[in-house]
Amino acid sequence: YMRMMSPSTGFGLGPSSPLLFLHLPQFFAIFAFSTCGSYSGVFRMSVECKNRTESDLSIEVEFEYPFRSEYFDAPTCKESNKERIFLFGDHSSSAEFFVTIGVFAFLYTTAALCIYVFFFEKYKEKNKGPLIDLVVTGVFAFMWLVSSAAWAKGLSDVKKATDPDAVITMIGACKEEENHCREVHDPVMSGLNTSVAFGFINLVLWAGNLWFVFKETSFFGGPLTPGPLTLGPHLIDPP
């Protein structure tokens, strides 16, 4: 059996190895920021007043990215008056931070792929490209950790703020025993749960990608270059 060896590693690894691995963070970055940034949800409640004509049996509360303070109008069960209810908190900072990291990660990876494909020799020149790549990849791995953790906490707060049972307690008419309030429809949060999962997947992928980028630097004993096919007795396995 004959093997193709590269001088630096003993394996047939060239620039295509880290290039292929870089595809994964690119696509998962898209999934992360799109599932969060495109989200919109709704939940419904009903307020049945003692005087049925003052009731509202379908109060629809909509909320969406970036999850700033939302509000809705609820009946007071006093003639036709309404009261404005604000949902707890402004959760836009963690959501926007998470989406921003996802967008910049996608843009950087796209640029890196173009450099790998079209300017690989320039990338290897004087080892500057691999060193910059290593630093930026490390920064993005750390930012994915911070943004994913922050958004996981933010999502927990969003769920509490949009829990119909909790929101009902904020409606003045629902505090009176003669009126009957209940939830009609819970918000669907599966898309936001998925965005958090994709965030931590990106963390793992970018942290793992550090190894591939590190192998391109001089710290690993010189940048990897595709070696020629070498035939010799030392490359032939004994029978």
Automatic annotation (TrEMBL):
<dbReference type="InterPro" id="IPR008253">
    <property type="entry name" value="Marvel"/>
</dbReference>
<feature type="transmembrane region" description="Helical">
    <location>
        <begin position="196"/>
        <end position="214"/>
    </location>
</feature>
<keyword id="KW-1133">Transmembrane helix</keyword>
<feature type="domain" description="MARVEL">
    <location>
        <begin position="13"/>
        <end position="218"/>
    </location>
</feature>
<keyword id="KW-0812">Transmembrane</keyword>
<comment type="subunit">
    <text>Homohexamer or homotetramer. Interacts with SRCIN1. Interacts with VAMP2; the interaction is inhibited by interaction of VAPM2 with SEPT8.</text>
</comment>
<keyword id="KW-0472">Membrane</keyword>
<keyword id="KW-0771">Synaptosome</keyword>
<protein>
    <recommendedName>
        <fullName>Synaptophysin</fullName>
    </recommendedName>
</protein>
<dbReference type="InterPro" id="IPR001285">
    <property type="entry name" value="Synaptophysin/porin"/>
</dbReference>
<dbReference type="GO" id="GO:0030672">
    <property type="term" value="C:synaptic vesicle membrane"/>
</dbReference>
<feature type="transmembrane region" description="Helical">
    <location>
        <begin position="97"/>
        <end position="119"/>
    </location>
</feature>
<keyword id="KW-0106">Calcium</keyword>
<dbReference type="Pfam" id="PF01284">
    <property type="entry name" value="MARVEL"/>
</dbReference>
<keyword id="KW-0770">Synapse</keyword>
<keyword id="KW-0677">Repeat</keyword>
<keyword id="KW-0968">Cytoplasmic vesicle</keyword>
<dbReference type="GO" id="GO:0048786">
    <property type="term" value="C:presynaptic active zone"/>
</dbReference>
<dbReference type="GO" id="GO:0043005">
    <property type="term" value="C:neuron projection"/>
</dbReference>
<comment type="function">
    <text>Possibly involved in structural functions as organizing other membrane components or in targeting the vesicles to the plasma membrane. Involved in the regulation of short-term and long-term synaptic plasticity.</text>
</comment>
<comment type="similarity">
    <text>Belongs to the synaptophysin/synaptobrevin family.</text>
</comment>
<feature type="transmembrane region" description="Helical">
    <location>
        <begin position="131"/>
        <end position="152"/>
    </location>
</feature>
<keyword id="KW-0325">Glycoprotein</keyword>
<keyword id="KW-0832">Ubl conjugation</keyword>
<keyword id="KW-0597">Phosphoprotein</keyword>
